[in-house]
Amino acid sequence: MTRNMLQFLRLGQAMPSKRAADTRKKDFNEIYEKWAEPDAADQSSRCEQCGIPFCQVHCPVQNNIPDWLKLVAEGRLEEAYAVSSATNNMPEVCGRICPQDRLCEGSCVLEQSKHGAVTIGAVEKYITDTAWERGWVKPVTPEKELEQSVGIIGAGPGGLAAAEELRKLGYQVTVYDRYDRAGGLLIYGIPGFKLEKYVVERRAKLLEQSGVKFVLGVNIGTDVSFADLRKKHGAILIATGVYKARVLSVPGVGANGVFPAMTYLTASNKKDLGDKVPDYDNGKLNAKGKNVVVIGGGDTAMDCVRTAIRQGAKSVKCLYRRDRENMPGSQREVANAIEEGVEFLWMSGPEAILHDSDNNATGVRAVRMRLGTPDASGRAKPEEIEGSQFVAPADIVIEALGFDPEDLPVMFGEPGLGLTRWGTLKTDFRNAMTTMDGVFAAGDIVRGASLVVWAIRDGRDAAASIHQHLQGARSAALNELRKAS
Ligand SMILES: Cc1cc2nc3c(=O)[nH]c(=O)nc-3n(C[C@H](O)[C@H](O)[C@H](O)COP(=O)(O)OP(=O)(O)OC[C@H]3O[C@@H](n4cnc5c(N)ncnc54)[C@H](O)[C@@H]3O)c2cc1C
Ligand code: SF4
To answer: Given pLDDT bands bounded at 50, 70 and 90, which one contains residue 480?
Structure first.
């Protein structure tokens, strides 16, 4: 049934139903159910069809949101999918895990006017999940095959988006990854309750069907040299993400039971994928029956606390030195964590990890904070409240303090690869090329730890620049040949 638009006074903001906390915390499946068509159409019909769509402006891939909302409201789902997939290589992933409150939905005029944003992410997920179900998502079939090849290092969202765009143009694309599966943090970082694994796996399969070659379990810089890769391909894209975990520097950090977030999450994700994980099976990386303290306030910390809940932890606490309003993690995820039984110790910073005589962690000694004057980043600086120390019991302590880039010039044996002062790759903002000719970069390795949707945007932009570069090289070579003959 076709619906008229501008229904926001008649219809309220709605999300697909969420599984009850008591049920969902027993498994790693996504927490939202799928929408029925009338519900998705009703929600879409709330859109104001603004002249200047701020949702689109604040979406990193500039999705044509008002257009696909209108098409959903009119029941024209296949066209909605065509519009939505024209600007985004993984709309169903972004619909699930973009922090919409900070991006499209946060800028929706209905949100600003207190009517509640259209739940854009949920509609985007609905459109593409439906497209998969109905067979509208097809592998790429380039109009013509080109001889030139591109090597992509990193099968995360940045690398995969670039691979698809380059295949559309007919390039021969090979993606290299040191993990044994494609997907990067989508597969080994982000847990199934936010993004079920099959959603990522079917994307990787589609790319294979599109002719993209995957070389997995290969560490570039160790198993294959960067120089050899450069000789093999006309252009290289580095999309390696950022993996050097920031660590605590307090007494006791060497105690047994203190883990970086990715060690903990990777083990749990591998278990969810059906792999054998000895350190999970022997209890080391399994929170069952244990007191868990996670230190940090971003998306990674939220994923750790909610994973610990699902593993059957005795207690799960999140220690963060600022307040809830100043947490970098998505507010929606904080609310989900609270519903599932996570206790937040806001305005608290760690002072020491306590341990027994066998060096097994027993707790975190923390101190209460207050927010002082803003620091260089403009955020209020936490200051300790003297004499306010307390102890949170902990058998497992997880450090979720963020990530820095690895030293790529050293890893790749390429001192010519220029870095910024943050250790990310220096690129020309006009064309994503690094300081090495024909070597491009995209995603977290350029921006620092960021978002999936930004990695996709960067991958798309880099693919366009690589195309321009390779076509330029091709014309130059043809001119040379012409001159020589
Ligand atoms: C726990 C966690 C939760 C997150 N949750 C969200 C969320 O809810 N929403 C959101 O938008 N973002 C989230 N993010 C951020 C998001 O996952 C990243 O911004 C995004 O994945 C970056 O994409 P990328 O392609 O740049 O890198 P990655 O996804 O990190 O992929 C890089 C790939 O490169 C490979 N690689 C690295 N070095 C080499 C080498 N030398 N040789 C071969 N392969 C190599 C890696 O194995 C990896 O597969 C989260 C991050 C984490 C850690
Ligand atoms: S990609 Fe992300 S920001 Fe853009 S419309 Fe989808 S959910 Fe919103």
So the answer is: confident
- Among 89-103, 110-124, 318-332, 469-483, the range scoring the smallest mean pLDDT is 469-483
Distance of CA 259 to the CA centre of its chain: 21
| Three-state DSSP state, 319 | strand
- CA-103 nearest atom, ligand 2: 3
Ligand 1 center from residue 455 Cα (angstroms): 9
Task: Report the alpha-carbon distance of residue 391 to residue 287 in Å, rounded.
Answer: 19
Tokens of 440: 């491009």
Angstrom CA distances, 437 to 237, 408, 420, 431, 440, stand at: 11, 16, 17, 12, 8
Instruction: Give residue 373's pLDDT.
Output: 84
Burial of 51 (0-12, 13-18, 19+ CB in 10 A): exposed
Ligand 1 centroid–CA 425 distance in Å is 15
CA atoms of 335 and 15, how far apart (whole Å): 14
pLDDT computed for residue 483 by the predictor: 80
- Tell me the chain's radius of gyration from C-alpha atoms: 24
- Residue 242: the pLDDT is 98
d(CA 460, CA 458): 5
Give residue 380 CA to ligand 2 midpoint distance, Å: 29
CA–CA separation, 264 and 189 (whole Å): 9
Pocket test for ligand 2, best of 87, 94, 118 (most atoms within 8 A of CB): 94
Q: Which residues pair with 220 in a beta bridge?
A: 224
Question: Which residues are bridge partners to 149 per DSSP?
Answer: 172
What CA dihedral angle connects 35, 271, 360 and 248, to 10 degrees? -60
In angstroms, rounded to a whole number, what is the distance separating the alpha carbons of residues 300 and 100? 17
Averaged pLDDT score across all residues of the chain: 96
CA dist., res. 465 & res. 226, Å (int): 21
Ligand 1 lining (C-beta closer than 6 Å):
97-98, 153-159, 176-179, 184-185, 189-190, 194, 219-221, 239-241, 265, 299-300, 303, 411, 443-444, 450-453, 455
pLDDT tens per residue, range 315-366:
999 999 999 988 888 888 999 999 999 999 999 999 999 999 999 999 999 9
Torsion sign across C-alpha atoms 184, 329, 88, 147: negative
**Token pair recorded at residue 411:** 């890893």
Reference 317, options 279, 272, 355, 363; nearest CA is: 363
Q: Tell me, yes or no, if the pTM score tops 0.85.
A: yes
